[in-house]
Amino acid sequence: MTDPYKILGVTPESTDDEINTAYRNLVKQYHPDRYVGNPLAELAAEKIKEINAAYDAVMNNRKNSSSSSSYSSYNSGQNSSDFDVNKIRMLINSGRLGEAEMLLNNVSVRNAEWHFLMGMVMKKKGWYDMAYQHLNRAASMDPSNTEFRQARDSMDFGGTGYRTFGNTGGYNDSCCDGCQTLICADCCCEMCGGNIIPCIGCR
Questions:
Q1: Domain coordinates in residue numbering, the chain
Q2: Which residues have a Cβ under 8 Å from the Cβ of 112 and sit 6 or more positions away?
Q3: How far apart, in whole angstroms, are the C-alpha atoms of residue 129 and residue 169?
Q4: Which residues, at least 6 apart from 62, have a Cβ–Cβ distance to it below 8 Å?
Q5: pLDDT above 90: residue 119
Q6: Cα gap 72→90, rounded to integer Å
Q7: Is the confidence at residue 125, as pLDDT, over 70?
Q8: What's the pTM value of the predicted model, to 2 decimals?
Q9: Mean pLDDT computed over 32-53
Q10: What is the DSSP track for 73-96?
């Protein structure tokens, strides 16, 4: 392989933050979604593979060179030595959700960072109820972490309509709004014998 640092556009003296930023920018630049139907799609896919391999090589080298190495950008002040946070974030960012979930499922110490990452996997897979559960747990375990809170709040107020009563303490507002509309329609059509019953959340 060509020098992995060169592929990422960084140097051995670069900080972990600089390497992560360079990696994320390259993934955005060559992400397959940007090349759908483009004749350069195959070339972009090869480039993504090269970028992922370079990132893995650089981070593994840093991890092996110093047993006390700490990835300050994502550590959140917690002990994450039980799993490679950067590796899992890289997999999530590049859409390799199955691999990320497998690594997370093998983790024994499930701290706030773990719940945040699992929540992001679930969200990207479209499993919004499970995503909210994990993101809410992460924000509860580490309320000072802005990233965790924002991710949780985006599920609260993003208008997804996927919240469950088990997580929010009440039924989904969009359900009750729908019932109100139906009840109004029922009143207007009562002469026709209509009788629309609201959902259990509105009774």
A1: 1-73, 78-170, 173-202
A2: 76, 78, 137, 138, 139, 141, 142, 145, 148
A3: 14
A4: 16, 69
A5: yes
A6: 15
A7: yes
A8: 0.42
A9: 88
A10: TT-TTS--TTS-HHHHHHHHHTT-
Angle between helical axes of 16-30 and 41-65 (0-180°, round to 10): 170
Q: Give Cβ neighbours of residue 128 (< 8 Å, ≥ 6 apart).
A: 122, 155, 160, 162, 163
pLDDT at position 201 is 45
How far is Cα 106 from Cα 185, in angstroms, rounded to an integer? 52
Q: Name the CATH topology of 1-73.
A: Helix Hairpins (1.10.287)
Domain 78-170, classified CATH 2.60.40, yes or no: no
Report residue 201: phi and psi, to 5°. -70, -15
Position 32 scores a pLDDT of: 80
CA distance 181 to 202: 12
pLDDT in tens, 54-73: 988 888 888 776 544 433 33
Quickly tell me which residue has 């630049």 as its tokens.
29
